[in-house]
Amino acid sequence: MSRRRSKRMRSLPKPANQACARSTTPKAQMECVLHCEISEVRESVGRYVCVLGSEAEVRDVNVNVCQASTLPLPVLIATERGSDCDFVSRYFAPTKGVPEDPITGTSHCTLAPFWGRRFGKTQLHARQLSDRGGEIHCSLDDDRARLTGECRYIFRARLQCQS
Predict the structure, then answer these.
(1) Strand pairing class (21-22; 98-101)
(2) Is 65 helix (H, G, I), strand (E, B) or coil?
(3) What is the pLDDT along the chain (163 residues), one digit of tens a residue?
(4) Cβ-based neighbours of 124, under 8 Å, separated by 6 or more
(5) Cα gap 84→103, rounded to integer Å
């Protein structure tokens, strides 16, 4: 894996995941978890992709953590077309100990191909609408998604292996 650097931007190529299968989980159950109407529910690798009706609905999602823990898949992604970007999203994984991730590369490995097919585009601009939020520029190339965005270091570490 190669990593490109520019000032504060980081770019990583990742495997692109398809969100093609319609979910077998009832839409009404997902609506109870997200407290909103859902246009469409898809499944990808260990996650639900829930398409809502508007960017405002994605921003206002309030996950019912107790009901989310009863779902077969551990991750929920709420998404919709963006008003000033290609798409917006939020990422929730309460059963994994992540009530909401502020900016999630792995979700964009699913969302970029999903929205790219709908828009007929290989270059997409995405915004995650968590409280901290962030922007990711996604570039699709065959089965890879290159994600580029500003990086914030949470911590730095050095590992030493004993021989």
Answers:
(1) unpaired
(2) helix
(3) 344 444 577 776 666 777 667 888 888 999 999 999 999 999 998 899 999 999 999 999 999 989 998 899 999 999 999 999 999 999 999 989 998 998 888 899 999 999 999 999 999 999 999 998 899 999 999 888 999 988 766 677 888 888 7
(4) 86, 87, 112, 115, 116, 137, 138, 139, 140
(5) 18
What fold, for 18-149? Diaminopimelate Epimerase; Chain A, domain 1 (3.10.310)
What is the model's pTM?
0.85
Strand ranges for 17-155 from DSSP E = 21-22, 40-44, 47-51, 75-81, 87-93, 98-101, 123-128, 134-141, 144-150
Q: Residue 138: CA atoms inside 13 Å, Cβ hemisphere, count?
A: 35
Look up residue 115 and give its amino acid. Answer: W
DSSP for residue 52 = -
Could you tell me the residue ranges of all domains in the chain?
18-149
